[in-house]
From TrEMBL:
Name assigned to this protein: DUF4193 domain-containing protein
Biased composition (Basic and acidic residues): 1-13
Record region (Disordered): 1-34
Species of the source: Catellatospora bangladeshensis
Superkingdom classification of source: Bacteria
Amino acid sequence: MATDYDAPRRDEADLGEDSLEELKARRVDNQSGSVDVDEVDLAEAFELPGGDLADEELTVKVVPMQADEFRCSRCFLVHHRSQLAGERNGEPICRECA
């Protein structure tokens, strides 16, 4: 709210002399007609199309590690031999972790 610093100030005695109607009018002016809306509540109510995956089952075929692959001893991901950077303490390390 903007404040006019050039306006004459009222002392405590003048404040006590305000009429009831003036006080009610000021209170109504200060109150906002809009209601605060929580953005989180709005976001929870919004659903993306195809977003309900509660009834879906994930089916993935697991393939065993191939002869030309290795498991990195740091990130524990399976990589192709071309990604082998070296070995530390006898354990293979991929290029990303090296």
